[in-house]
């Protein structure tokens, strides 16, 4: 187990020195919980539906300024000093707030029913805490709640959260359930909630919320390890209260008045009191379901039939070990901590969104039977198509099939007949741009992952890419670009559609549909239509072909021509045809100079004041936001991979660490972590779907990846050091590797990629045209 703050390094070293342990020892869930990482430290299993974690504040409940909403998207922030309680659902590293379902807080002494404020914690039920008495490891979280002298421990299965509360010397303990609490951006609205006590140890509850996802239901089954002594039902909704005819704030003894056991309303809270808690810790089990109370109870009794907290914790840890041990890394303590924590974060989503009986809530609002496949939610596709989904094709290709099937049923159930854009918990948010589900599906198909209806996949891809109701697709097809007078962010949308069209063309070509593939290859060249030769930037223009006036390539404006970026960044977004982009920008040397200018030109805060996501800056390069993630690798396409090697080291050294603020921006559901994993190994998927990986510069001495086919792919960086950051030469399975890229087959076939590192660049390696990563022209 890894302790927070100063105890981290010592604990890790001692553990590794005293026993043979698995790779969970290197994971520190607190990395990324500070700064703008937007990560939570709580208990979760790989791809789990439950993310049981502490909430340190909720800006929309009047406890901190609204400006802090973005900072606390995950419910927890390392800078905070109080905990409101523990809720069961959280986003991992997003730039938007929601979830925080069913907050539970253990209490001793007087029970307050409002959370209070961070500046005045005594006014509510929150408690102070210290990082010196806070612990986390994969599948486990614990903290000492100072104000109550309670040690709270959390663990989880896929669908169940488990709490253990040690009340220490207290004679009586209380558990507050706050159905009003949520991690919200602006709406903060509970549409309806209900809670019912069905026996002396068991509750069932429900609520529907209106947050980022509108009218989102969630059901809960809650069981306690000992009988409830007293139960208090509270409704704070303008004193309107329904509890079997009772009025107001009412306290019931479950022994004296067993008839009165339920309440319904928009502002419900429930307090369970327990006697004799000094003898044994109180254990609480919470099962979740988006379908029904019955399913929530079935999930609970199926996954956690007994009260053995330590057994559940050990099982969660073993699930993580099974995944983390697929990758063996050699390097420093800090390197291992960063790598394995990145892998831990990359394997938290998409989440299972399905009950043990196979049922799940579809985007049509209906209950569906998914017994034939595993159903997933949380598709942050504008972020994750770039590196996370390609990484999952190696870590767990079977799950990738389930994710593709989940996208396909989303398509079938959606009124618009669209693949997901940014969806979670049975709702499409239409957040961000592009139709990047087609990239995920095409990349999976081309890699041989095909355990789904391929004909349906092709139908969904075609309909999505030609859907007349989505983001100016008719205009894109008519003009070959999205006009700025039709839709904001028009340049970014055009560029991302063009890449997606390339991915579609690749899949069609593999299916033997060359004529149709050629149509999409032609659409993939639409990036040329927003390139302004006069300024040499991707620039917005209207439906009359008039370029955007008052053009400033440094400025990132809300509702401007770019999505969370500026022209300097987005002008490099042609991942599928970098050779074509180089030609537009004037050739190899001019292209190199343009990338240098991106990294070396200062970007003032005034230019990006409207976009919180533009973070992790090196000049105009913004590592904290996805449109920059591939750019450092583009020197390879100009025959200058040694420049990529310099930049990758620069990014790693300045924008990554193993501290709580060690991420340059929010993790975006694992994308930032996946970038780190690929880059540490020394290569990156610039254009998923072309089955190539541009070589960067390895950052750890050795990585061995065990593949699903039983083979191993190993990267070795001989002589790697602080000074030796350049690749002098490379071999693949003992044969000289002259190209600055590897292929999917190179990885899938197993073997060893060996880099010889030095302190001076080899400017001839990877320079030849035939040695450069492929571009669109090679697929036509």
UniProtKB/TrEMBL annotation:
The keyword Glycosyltransferase does not apply. Residues 26-289 form the Glycosyl hydrolase family 92 N-terminal domain. Coiled coil: none annotated. Keywords: Hydrolase, Signal. Residues 1-19 form the signal peptide. Residues 295-759 form the Glycosyl hydrolase family domain. Pfam families: Glyco_hydro_92 (PF07971), Glyco_hydro_92N (PF17678). GO terms for molecular function: hydrolase activity. PANTHER family: PEPTIDE N-GLYCANASE PNGASE -RELATED, SECRETED PROTEIN. This is GH92 family glycosyl hydrolase. It comes from Pseudoalteromonas fenneropenaei.
